[in-house]
């Protein structure tokens, strides 16, 4: 049984009213009535004495409608319909955060304003005994300082620098002071991967992992690991907020997720951004100090991409002809039993290329965001049961495959931004036993993004002290 339900049972046995339970459940949250599992008669006294504050979900600000939960102001993302509850023929609702439950003009958000539960001050919360590289050590100290001084900072760590470990000292410091911490990341996969790692390193800390479809089994968790969407349920809850992969979709494109992070932070709090490829707005922001980790944890340089002109690869593949150099690249690497990742710009071109390789008798699999078997295929590729995997940009980040060699077909395509290409290149040489490897951009015309990606990787290597 989880702590929350043990506690609930204890209170119930003692004959306590549900106030403590409601407080626990509402801790730092702002929720719709439908999200609160307590009957009306138990909430009513708390509403009357304003321990539970009710706020309209949609605010009318100078004639503009704003969603209080997600910050959406975009008219095109607001809908309206006839509503039985408020009898209005045009009850407005926010479509932008609909997946968290519908917020409409007549819906209220419930927020706890009563006393806040203190979190335990945990000494020596960190049990991890690994060693940090010198770059990690330096960044780790700065993260700890940011936690102590409640400042904002950016950790710019190259792919494979080991950024999670860089957080450990800062987290330990936060728990020592009884602080509550949020780690927000754009992808569910990362939440699922980080949870057991952090649980192992901080066994005494109560944690929860929140993503679409997950249940909040520990509403009083001191460390919350959540997808950026789930952050929208919190309000002034955290002393330390860490935003992982701040440049990654959907965070960088989505103002509302930035709004959510601002809402979830306490007024006095530390904010730490992590990225291997921060965008320019963040780098130019004057109140955010940047710490770089240009060296990978295994102390080898980042593999630098090389370029191979293919001619009109799309036309060639469609007409069952090889784009220049691709045949050789595949055959040579496969002969050495090296696992190969081939990035392709779109699902359509992925399928075309797959059909062509099939004709040429190259055993392979394909994977993309809408593929229901994507998790199984990624596992099979990791276990070297698939020699060659064709993928869209979904595998550009967050994955590690031992000794993988990587190519991009059609790297001139717009989907391959500078950041995407740096991330893709960052898949190569991550394992300390195989720190080198090939990264090749097969293209029909060099783009700025390709040149800048290469430059960025070379600059980081230079900063790390490699030739
Ligand atoms: Zn909304
Ligand atoms: Zn209504």
Structural account:
The chain is an alpha/beta fold. The chain has three domains: 27-112, no CATH class; 134-293, 3-Layer(aba) Sandwich (Rossmann fold); 306-463, Rossmann fold. It contains 15 helices and 20 strands. It has a seven-stranded parallel β-sheet. The longest helix is centred in the N-terminal third of the chain and has 16 residues, at 134-149. It is globular. The model has no long low-confidence stretch (mean pLDDT 91). The chain binds zinc ion (2 copies). Residues 83, 85-86, 88, 91, 104-106 line the site of one zinc ion.
The shape, in one word, is: globular
Broad CATH class of the largest domain: Alpha Beta
Query: What would CATH call the architecture of the largest domain?
Result: 3-Layer(aba) Sandwich
Oligomer: single chain
- The percentage of residues in β strands lies in 15-25%
The averaged pLDDT comes out at 91
Task: List low-confidence stretches.
Answer: none
| Number of contiguous helices | 15
Annotation, overall tally of beta strands = 20
Bound molecules: zinc ion
Helix/strand/pairing category: alpha/beta
Radius of gyration: 25 Å
What's the number of structural domains? 3
**Biggest sheet strand line-up:** 10-11-9-12-13-8-14
């Amino acid at each position: 049984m989880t702590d929350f339900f043990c506690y609930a049972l204890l209170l119930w046995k003692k004959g306590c009213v549900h106030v403590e339970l409601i407080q626990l459940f509402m801790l730092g949250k702002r929720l719709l009535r439908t999200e609160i599992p307590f009957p009306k008669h138990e909430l009513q006294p708390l509403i009357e004495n304003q321990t539970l504050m009710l706020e309209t979900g949609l605010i009318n600000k100078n004639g503009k409608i704003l969603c209080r939960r997600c910050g959406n102001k975009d008219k095109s993302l607001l809908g309206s319909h006839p509503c039985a509850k408020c009898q209005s023929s045009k009850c407005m609702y926010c479509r932008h955060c609909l997946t968290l439950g519908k917020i409409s003009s007549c819906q209220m958000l419930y927020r706890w304003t009563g006393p806040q539960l203190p979190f335990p001050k945990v000494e020596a919360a960190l049990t991890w005994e690994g060693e940090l590289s010198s770059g990690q050590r330096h960044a780790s100290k700065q993260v700890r300082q940011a936690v102590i001084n409640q400042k904002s900072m950016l950790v710019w760590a190259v792919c494979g620098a080991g950024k999670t470990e860089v957080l450990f000292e800062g987290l330990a410091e936060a728990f020592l002071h009884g602080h509550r911490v949020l780690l927000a990341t754009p992808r569910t996969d990362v939440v699922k991967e980080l949870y057991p790692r952090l649980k192992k390193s901080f066994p005494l800390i109560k944690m929860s992992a929140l993503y679409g479809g997950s249940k909040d089994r520990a509403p009083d968790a001191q460390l919350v690991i959540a997808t950026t969407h789930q952050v929208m349920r919190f309000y002034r809850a955290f002393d330390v907020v860490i935003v992982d992969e701040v440049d990654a979709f959907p965070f960088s494109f989505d103002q509302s997720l930035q709004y959510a992070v601002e809402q979830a932070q306490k007024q006095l709090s530390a904010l730490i951004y992590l990225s291997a490829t921060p965008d320019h707005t963040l780098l130019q922001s004057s109140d955010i100090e940047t710490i770089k980790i240009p060296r990978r944890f295994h102390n080898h340089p980042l593999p630098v991409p090389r370029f191979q002109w293919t001619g009109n690869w799309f036309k060639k593949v469609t007409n069952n002809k090889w784009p220049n150099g691709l045949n050789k690249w595949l055959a040579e690497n496969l002969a050495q039993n090296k696992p190969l990742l081939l990035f392709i710009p779109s699902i359509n071109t992925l399928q075309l290329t797959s059909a062509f390789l099939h004709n040429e008798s190259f055993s392979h699999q394909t994977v993309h965001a809408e593929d229901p078997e994507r998790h199984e295929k990624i596992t099979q590729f990791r276990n070297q049961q698939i020699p060659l995997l064709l993928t869209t940009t979904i595998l550009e980040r967050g994955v590690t495959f031992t000794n993988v060699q990587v190519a991009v077909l059609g790297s001139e395509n717009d989907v391959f931004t500078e950041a995407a290409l740096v991330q893709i290149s960052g898949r190569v040489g991550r394992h300390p036993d195989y720190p080198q490897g090939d990264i090749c951009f097969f293209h029909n015309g060099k783009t700025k993004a390709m040149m800048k990606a290469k430059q960025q990787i070379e600059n980081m290597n230079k900063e790390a002290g490699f030739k």
